[in-house]
Amino acid sequence: MMRPKRLGFTILHRAAILAYIAFALFPLFWLLKVSITPNDLLYGEGVRMWPSRSTFDHYVFVLEHSDFPLFFRNSLIVSLSTAFIVTALASIAGYALSRFAFRGKFWIVGLMLLTQMFPLVMLIAPIFKILSPLGLTNSLTGLIIVYVAFNVPFATFLMQSFFDGIPKDLEEAAMIDGATRFKAFRQIILPLTLPGIAATLGFVFTAAWSELLFALMLISGVDASTFPVGLLSFVSKFSVDFGQMMAAGVLALIPACLFFFFIQRYLVQGLTAGAVKG
Amino acid sequence: MTEAARAPIGRDRRPFMRRFAIAAEPYLYSAPALILIAAVMLVPLVIGISYAFRNVILLDPFSGGFVGLEHFREMAKDKAFWLALRNTVSWTGWSVLLQFVFGLILALLLDQPFKGRGLAQALCFLPWAVPSFLSGLNWAWMFNPVIGPIPHWLYGLGILPAPDNILADPKLAMWGPIVANVWWGIPFFAITLLAALQAIPRDLYEAAAIDGATPFQRFRSITLPFLAPTIAITVMLRTVWIANFADLIVVMTNGGPADRTQIIASYIFTQAFRRLDFGYASAIAMVLLALLLVYSLLIVLLRQTLLKEA
Question: N or C: more exposed end of chain A, with fewer CB within 10 A?
Fold first, then answer.
């Protein structure tokens, strides 16, 4: 009796998943397709699913005749530094929020929630005026400082939830054996949170990689431009050259997607760890 | 408080310095994050609020004087501001609603065990890894009839009278950024809701199934109550982020055509960057901040009531 109903459910379930995957991937597929379409076919074969001829000319142009390799390097420096610094700060702060009951905790949590509500545009002018006399405008260091501060609150909440998932008895046992709390944290709790740390690194890396408004405001020269700024100026300069724009777009996508694929299995592990606990 | 009351069991015989170090520990752990937040967010926020009452125009050395509530009076008469406020409500409302509904469906689909779930999950969550400015550009290209397929599909389905760019149509333009935002934001909801789903004890479902509950009954009386606190907090954070999120609109339509896609956040951006009028921009930002605070407070209260009932 149950069999046909179950089968029907399974088919519907797989079809829904496939439909969503198609929806999620199609825009990226289209980006790739236009980036390898030769210019003379671009308009004639506008809505074809795959061009009759393909070329890598757009990529060669972008890599050899533009500043993209430089933007790429700048973005990589900024995003990696931000991700590692934020994760370190958020780990210890998240641990404090997860394990201690202390005076002022309510206000610290409230303050961090509040920072999630700022219209960030409101901060651009004051930050510009603070960083400028310190020589931190038009510098990657200034950008990293700003990105770290913006990403710390959310990362702290994220790390706190990962610490909450680890039983307290573990470090309490170690502390009874004479270890200090920091030693117990470093040697017992941190290794158990590795999936959470990887997930946090990924969250922050992608956030820093895609930030546009502050990079536009704080950076004025080509030397310190990040990828979003570079791509946007490229779009306004060569606004009809769709092939080259999309080739640059695909290049901007690669590190974010690579990083995502690298961390997403830790993300899955983190999620399933929660399930086992329940 | 006396010493005896503080010590957990009997008198604490540990040396004073050690006890002090233990009491200071949580503050030491959270200090680096807090100092940075204070220096880079709170101090500029206070300065930014002061700008709202001053005449601050970048590159104008004679600006900076106190103008009181002048900016707010100007705002009350500013038609573009009121239009942007209405647009913000529809932009945020539709984006959050669609992201949430599809995110929940996706989370429920991925919560079922099946072969290849890891890969399916990675592919479903991929849009979230796409930088937001790039997803804006990508969708703008998809809506462009010269190189994108969407206008031709909509024309083929009879939804559009001609294969035109909906981003140039004042009545439809807002749907462009909304679609891009929904595509980009579904994974965030799906990830958090999936984590919450997997934390629900499985034996509850088994018990309910033995008692003969239908799948819908199980969803309503087990899944939803367990998810409710997570839903409240995610919807709140997401609403606030989306209301502040100008990137997609700036990249896709720049507020046009005829200000029909201008939201408050992109209007602030326009005031600050085109006219360099940081005073007026800060005043608008303050109004937005106040509205979002009121909204968040309501959601937090709602969450508290839900938690008490559970």
Answer: N
Residues of B in contact with A257 (CB under 8 A): 126, 129-130
Given the structure tokens 């990962």, which residue do they identify? A162
Domain-by-domain residue ranges, chain A? 1-55, 65-277
Half-sphere exposure of A25 (CA within 13 A, CB side): 13
Which residue in chain A is spatially nearest to B124 when comparing CA positions?
A21
Give the Cα separation of B174 and B262 in Å (integer).
9
Amino acid at the residue A106: F
pLDDT in tens, B82-115: 999 999 999 999 999 999 999 999 999 998 888 8
**What distance in Å separates the CA atoms of residue B135 and residue A57, rounded to the nearest whole number?**
23
What are the respective helix, strand and coil percentages of chain B, to the nearest 5? 75, 0, 25
Chain B residues lying within 8 Å of A203, measured CB to CB: none
- C-alpha distances (whole Å) from A181 to each of A170, A171, A184, B27, B68 are 11, 7, 5, 14, 52
Q: Point out the residue among A93, A113, A260 whose CB comes nearest to the CB of B129.
A: A260
Of B147, B202, B265, Cβ closest to residue A46: B147
B244/A117 Cβ within 8 A: yes
Query: Rounded to whole angstroms, what are the CA distances from A92 to A95, A148, A152, B42, B258?
Result: 5, 15, 11, 21, 49
Residue that wins the pLDDT comparison between A80 and B6: A80
What pLDDT tens digit does each residue of chain A (278 aa) get? Answer: 456 778 888 899 999 999 999 999 999 999 888 888 887 777 776 677 788 778 888 888 888 888 888 998 999 999 999 999 999 999 999 999 888 888 888 888 888 888 877 777 778 778 887 888 888 888 899 999 999 999 999 899 888 888 888 888 888 888 888 888 888 888 888 888 888 888 888 889 888 988 888 888 788 888 888 888 888 777 776 666 788 888 888 988 888 888 777 677 666 555 544 433 33
Rg (CA), chain B: 25
- Residue A149: Cβ within 10 Å count: 25
Note the residue count of chain B: 310
Is the alpha carbon torsion for B263, B250, A147, B122 positive or negative?
positive
| Beta carbons of A27 and B183 less than 8 angstroms apart | yes
Test the A interface: residue of B134, B152, B165, B222 with most A CBs within 10 Å: B134
- Predicted TM-score (pTM) of the model is 0.82
| Assigned CATH class of B70-309 | mainly alpha
CA–CA gap between residue B263 and residue A90 (Å, rounded): 32
B121 chain-A contacts, CB cut-off 8 A: 264, 268
CA nearest B263: which of B295, B288, B293? B288
Give, in words, the CATH class of A65-277: mainly alpha
Reading the block at residue B132, the tokens are 């937001």
Partner residue facing B36 (CB), from A21, A149, A278: A149
Amino acid at A15: A
